[in-house]
Write a structure and sequence with these properties.
single chain, about 90 residues, alpha+beta, three-stranded mixed β-sheet, 3 strands, about 35% helix, about 15% strand, globular
Amino acid sequence: MKSLLIKPNLNIKSALRQMTETGEKCLVVVDSKNLLLGTLSDGDIRKAILNGKIYKDKISTYYQKRPTFLRKENYSVSRAKNIFLK
């Protein structure tokens, strides 16, 4: 799980490198205490680049600051699937 965590002060290039290394399409943005701040997907990065941002720009502007998350004890797989399909 640690390999999916990223700090908001890192740049787009670092995030892309981390996604490539992990093989994942989404990273979890956390603060210095590893508390959830949001998520950063490859789609978020693509949109930023298409809008003229460069690899040196920080991800802090581009990540999703209100991600959907589920607690393991409060959902079933079918309920989770329905939430994400909406």
